[in-house]
Design a protein that fits this description.
single chain; Aspartate Aminotransferase, domain 1; Aspartate Aminotransferase, domain 2; 15 helices
Length: about 350
């Protein structure tokens, strides 16, 4: 039994999801004739109470399109220093849109309205014009942390007062909605654009969407084309998304529960310095300084358990829909039975 906890992107479509995909009615989406894609876009737009949604091959492309829609070259955007758009999108903000990022020193990937105010450039010709505030919920590098909705509302006000766009990277928004008992509509009311992923916790093989208001979204399809993201019979992929929206949202609570239990087991280990607070499906923990990260990862690998390092002796575990109860029991059993030495994991 291979236990892969490197990411919630490692899931494979279930039999039922594959069946739904096989039965999809498709057409050429460049002609906007794929009825399953159209159905998914309409459904997601409605969920968020927004007029428009567009299907993308990746969350990166959806985010990059949003940045392009909100900015002109030379502009500046505000985001957390942990932001996916800054760290993990290959420098796309500068490559695609010619913008720079003003980084906020947040807490677990989240920041305050006051920090946004401080980060806005003064209105003088020698400054880069600030155009957009971007937040991530849940915040990936923040350990799957969830924003307090009141903090989001305060930032919305700052954006309104300063004519700034407000974009949400909601790759894992579903996890936050489940934990906080919030609704997509709440988020639709507050943000100008929102990207969401189907290929993370929801278990689809491919797919993201960008939702937004009419005025900004009318150019989104052109930007997607410029980025090479137009697809043809994409309804096979959209069908997986529709299936996931019906079946895989509420169950995220199981992933969260498992993540918490893993965190509790890890916290008892002598070789671990700290486990970050666990709110959703991500567990970030730090090894003691004298513990070799590579050796620790390798020892788990020898047991067929795969996790990844994030640098600076921090490691990440992500639970997901292909991490079964049996795998969970086995992993917890190993953690409980194990004796740990400073040179790694001794089982
Ligand atoms: C995964 C992820 C994305 C999008 O990634 P893709 O692999 O391009 O789909 C965007 N933001 C966050 C926070 C993510 O975790």
């Amino acid at each position: 039994m291979t236990i892969d906890l490197r990411s919630d992107t490692v899931t494979k479509p279930s039999k039922a999801m594959l069946d739904a995909m096989m039965q999809a009615k498709v057409g050429d989406d460049v002609f906007r004739e794929d009825e399953t894609v159209n159905q998914l876009e309409t459904r997601v737009a409605k969920m968020f109470g927004k007029p428009s949604a567009l299907f993308f091959p990746s969350g990166t492309m959806a985010n990059q399109t949003a940045i392009k829609l909100h900015t002109s070259p030379g502009d500046q955007i505000i985001c957390d220093k942990f932001a996916h758009i800054y760290n993990y999108e290959s420098g796309g903000a500068s490559f695609n849109s010619g913008v720079s990022c003003k980084l906020i020193e947040g807490h677990r990937g989240m920041f305050t309205a006051e920090q946004v105010i401080e980060a806005i450039n003064p209105d003088a010709y020698y400054y880069s014009p600030t155009r957009l505030v971007e937040i991530e919920n849940t915040a990936n590098r923040g350990g799957g942390s969830c924003w307090d909705f009141n903090d989001i509302l305060k930032i919305r006000k700052v954006c309104g007062d300063n004519s700034l766009g407000f974009h949400l990277d909601g790759a894992r928004l579903w996890n936050a909605l489940v934990v906080k008992n919030e609704t997509p509509k709440q988020y639709g009311e507050v943000f100008d654009t929102i990207s969401i992923c189907l290929s993370k916790g929801l278990g689809c093989p491919v797919g993201s969407l960008l939702v937004g208001d009419e005025a900004i979204m009318k150019n989104a399809i052109r930007i997607r084309k410029v980025f090479g993201g137009n697809m043809r019979q994409a309804g096979f992929l959209a069908a997986a998304g529709l299936y996931a929206l019906d079946n895989n949202i509420e169950r995220l609570a199981e992933d969260h529960k498992k993540a918490k239990e893993i965190g509790e087991a890890l916290a008892k280990l002598a070789i671990i310095k700290a486990v970050e607070p666990i709110e959703t499906n991500i567990v970030i923990f730090e090894l003691n300084n004298d513990v070799n990260e590579k050796a620790f990862i390798q020892k788990l690998k020898d047991k067929n358990i795969h996790i990844i390092g994030m640098g600076t002796n921090k490691l990440r575990i992500v639970t997901h829909l292909d991490y079964s109860d049996a795998m969970h029991e086995k992993f917890l059993g190993i953690l409980k039975k194990s004796q740990f030495k400073s040179n790694g994991l001794k089982i």
